Amino acid sequence: MAKREKPDDARPKARLPKGMRDVPSAEVRGLERMLGKIRGVYELYGFEPLATSAIEFTEALGKFLPDQDRPNAGVFSFQDEDGEWMSLRYDLTAPLARFVAENYDALPKPYRRYQTGSVWRNEKPGPGRFREFVQFDCDTVGTDNVAADAEICMMAADALEAIGVERGQYRMRINNRKVLDGVLETAGIDPLSDANTKQRLTVLRAIDKLDKFGPAGVELLLGKGRKDESGAFTDGAGLGAASIKILLDYVTAPAGERGATLAAIGKLIAGSERGRQGAEELAGIDRMLTSAGYGAARITIDPSVVRGLEYYTGPVFEAELTFETKNEEGETARFGSVGGGGRYDGLVARFVGTPVPATGFSIGVSRLYSALKALGKTGAEAARGPVLVLVMDKTDLGTYQALASKLRQAGIAAEMYVGTSGMKPQMKYADKRGSPCVIIQGGDEKAKGEVTIKDLVAGAKAAEAITDRAAWTEGRPAQVSVPEGDMVKAVQEILARQGA
Amino acid sequence: MAKREKPDDARPKARLPKGMRDVPSAEVRGLERMLGKIRGVYELYGFEPLATSAIEFTEALGKFLPDQDRPNAGVFSFQDEDGEWMSLRYDLTAPLARFVAENYDALPKPYRRYQTGSVWRNEKPGPGRFREFVQFDCDTVGTDNVAADAEICMMAADALEAIGVERGQYRMRINNRKVLDGVLETAGIDPLSDANTKQRLTVLRAIDKLDKFGPAGVELLLGKGRKDESGAFTDGAGLGAASIKILLDYVTAPAGERGATLAAIGKLIAGSERGRQGAEELAGIDRMLTSAGYGAARITIDPSVVRGLEYYTGPVFEAELTFETKNEEGETARFGSVGGGGRYDGLVARFVGTPVPATGFSIGVSRLYSALKALGKTGAEAARGPVLVLVMDKTDLGTYQALASKLRQAGIAAEMYVGTSGMKPQMKYADKRGSPCVIIQGGDEKAKGEVTIKDLVAGAKAAEAITDRAAWTEGRPAQVSVPEGDMVKAVQEILARQGA
């Protein structure tokens, strides 16, 4: 670059705030493709789109996050000219509740909508944890019919398959808050008493560690507590042996064929009316899934799903990717959760004063995209740049633009080089853009009414050795000269050869 | 709804902050379609997508708005945990400048990107003016080649046609800051002196009123000033008669065939080196456009384009829709501008200290969508809701879900009614959703292995009269019973009959 005009310290730094990121082109395209396919499935199920504003009154958002691990979840807030506090939305559910409450009478009931968009959290960022990220939600509001829950699970399974996650690489896992409450009741813990909140959370957290510490570890956490390898001690829930056994039997119930799981659950909640209700809801979901042909290879009932149980009021869902991949520590592990949801009745009630039943599912878009990347299914793998028309004579740009136009008219992405540099930087540019081929029309070619097309994929190696125009003209690696009228056809052949 | 649980004053109000809005489903779909088509054109020209974060450091955004009518344009700002000020982006250009400066070495040069997304302005909202709105930008950074400017105009024209604005319904208008500067110079006003800023702005504002007040009005505003019908007086630029004549000749130069406009301009900037440069840039753009086959029916050179001239440093572009429509006051008027842009060299320089030439174009997405709506080309006109499978027996939901599944497997948007209400509300629901038809399988039909399909478009009137199941069963308006195995085919026939 030319010499600087201002001293360094007078200039702002080109940088992003912590936890923010720019999404590069391949990912924008891959996300667009992925979100489009999910949208297609959701539309097929009769869900309709909605877009709410990014900014809401802080009061309207409230604080309802399903993820209990982040109790201090913060929002970005500022005041309007009247001093009222506004916030950036931290999820898509709270704005939905506001929207439904505001438009209740005009909406069809049940109201079924999907929405995708950025949400913001004023939290400590970390690896893979950003302050702005995209969610893709679907919700059915205004019915307590578990058919709505079953359908959302089917739809999520269909969406995963539509984007390229194959059957067997994922599992939708369903649990039910009421069933857990029933088990707690059977185990002697009142599930609805405020006095038990802390103990209940400790129990949930213990169950959530099944994957990590196994049944023996959970047993310790449900009882007196557990010391880890470093010697650090985690307090337990302080339950007695009989209670612990009931809870362990629950979380380790087989999550294979849904009928077997339902039978195992049935025994553990005998005597709890709330538990019976929950089990009946799961049985209803099972019947729906079975009728529609969704077996346990796609959707299981799984008592070890704990996440969000404290937040949701009935069925909860989790989409888990079951294929193995390397985690952040380089260990081989299941990919894990890419979305979750469930039934919640309190959100709209905040505004209207009466319970409005609702159920929904939210996809963590970045995480799902990472999974597609791990599977090589983002579609970005096949992406290529535009065909580049080289500028051989700067006084004759119209000629090259006309060639680029012809290619575009045939539906081929193409550009004339619009910089001002010479041959070598132009070839470098084509390389950087991932161009499949370049179009060359020097004076000789123009006189003959021809163009030369260089296949950059076939010619990649040879191109590295070329340093000047003379060598180029002699060598002509992986290139072909055709009459100008045949250019489009010749380029199409090269593209076909390279694969779509 | 059931009785309320909380007193009114304990509940938050379900409402949006001023200037915010929810986008309903038809518009979300129509926008998606429109943006997808624009994206397709931009990709065809070799532009690649980028998505930057919504939040930037306030310092990095600076204050660079092309619209001089809103000097107090505000942003939404808040502080991070270290006390640094962050803001929501107010356009997509300032973040692009930050991105380019931050990644300069890694980017191909020229760098060509498009981006679409929300921007936020903390300004007084009004009719049609929101605090959150969507822009669609394309920019070429790192070249002063006017081929890049020409291409952006061609691309914008192609994009308008791709979304359904026909040739003749729009015009891309090009002007050049340097040409105006040359005319000012010829008229005796130093275009680069800071001492003249106020007078120059008054001149620009006067020229901008050509549409409204005609040449006679502009003449007054360039001279002593103008009194309007209410008696209010607007101060003029105080120019002498000779200067006024030059400026009037300039803004009223014919904006038809580009060659004629260029000839008229040439006479007015004789003697100004800066003006000559600008005219040469326009001539270069004209040559490119002509070679690529873009005539004056699509792209004109138009000296009356003033908007943004104070901000841009070379060519400026405006996309005008020329068809007539009713404006907010109910008067018939041209639809007007839906986008604008031009060449600006200062933005990246803020960070890196050296000028980085750039040119770009920004579409006001909501405004363009309004235009499509006025033209009946949003695609929402042909939209319809999902086929609804009615629930006749609540204990047999699996059966209905299976029917809905079958339709979806054939690519037909379909849902089983997931509410809990009876026949009449279900029919109302289908109506509200815009369902093309409903599927009915009562006990009799099930016994015979049949389904009944009711065409809601054909049967719209008859349906209103139906109050109970008995009347329904007798009347059977616009409905057909077919074996279950023929359901998909029969629905496809109804959809085809209704038109896609």
Radius of gyration of chain A: 29 Å
Structural class call of chain A reads: alpha+beta
- The averaged pLDDT of chain A comes out at 90
Q: Sum up the overall morphology of chain A in one term.
A: elongated
In whole angstroms, the N-to-C terminal distance of chain A is 38 Å
Unreliable spans of chain A: 1-6, 65-72
What is the helix tally of chain A? 18
- Report the helical percentage of chain A: 25-40%
Strand order of the largest sheet of chain A: 1-5-6-13-12-11-7-10
Approximate strand percentage of chain A: 15-25%
Counted beta strands of chain A: 18
Quaternary organization: homodimer
The interface involving the most residues is between:
A-B, 110 and 111 residues
Largest sheet of chain A: 8 strands, mixed
Outline the structure in words.
2 copies of one chain form a homodimer. Chain A has helices at 25-44, 58-61, 93-102, 146-163, 177-186, 197-208, 210-222, 241-251, 258-268, 273-291, 349-352, 365-375, 397-409, 423-433, 443-448, 460-465, 469-475, 487-498, and strands spanning 48-49, 55-57, 77-79, 85-88, 111-120, 132-141, 170-176, 225-227, 233-235, 299-301, 315-326, 332-344, 358-364, 387-389, 414-416, 437-440, 450-455, 479-483. The first copy, chain A, is elongated. Chain A is α+β, with helices and mostly antiparallel strands and 500 residues long. In chain A, the strands form 4 sheets. In chain A, strands 1-5-6-13-12-11-7-10 form an 8-stranded mixed sheet. A 5-stranded mixed sheet of chain A has the order 15-14-16-17-18. Chain A has 18 helices and 18 strands.
